[in-house]
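Hello Y.,

Per our agreement to keep a running log of every chain we model this quarter, I'm adding this entry. I've kept the format consistent with earlier entries: sequence first, then predicted structure.
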Amino acid sequence: MEKEKLSADLKGLVGETSLSDRTWNDYLEQSVIPHLPSEEDKIGDYLGKHAIALKSINGQLNNEVATRVNDFKKNYKPVAVNSEQSTVDNPDKSVQHADNEKLTDLETRLQRFEKVEAEKKAAKAKTEKLTEVKKLMQKEGSTNETVIGLILPQLKIREDLTAEDLAKAGKTLYDKAYTDLYGETYVPAFGGNSTLGSQKGDKDAYMKHLKETGRIK
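Predicted structure for the entry above:
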């Protein structure tokens, strides 16, 4: 007879039991199966005897548990709780306050960190876009590094503007700045190096011009 069917038949005879599954399986494997009759007509009586034994064991177990519970109730002495001490249902307010302060501090630090990271990300994106704009402007002949260095910071970077849009606006500013620096007779795009002083002098002069005309502060 299969172990599963044997177990089911025996449980049907014993009824409700407090024995754990592990104890039940151990009893089945060590006490029932090794001596199981080979004749089918004798198995019923054999299981009946084990059912009686298991009922007795279960009864003794239940009685022992009940006795221990009663003894515990008789001997149990509740521990007096000081009214000033905190309880599970009413935690100390100072502890709650400290926890709230820690949480607030963590949230503040997290927000600060996220702000710094966002600023770093925005600065990196701006630098990358301006680098691309500079390359596009140079392809169009805007090759004077001094003028480009003056123009790029004036460009308004927006998400809706592509590098091509900014390069086009930058080219217009570049030509205007070049004319202001080197005069109208000089062709800005595809022009050579200036002979009207050093680049630093050109830059200082142009910055002064921008301030005087109110284009920058």
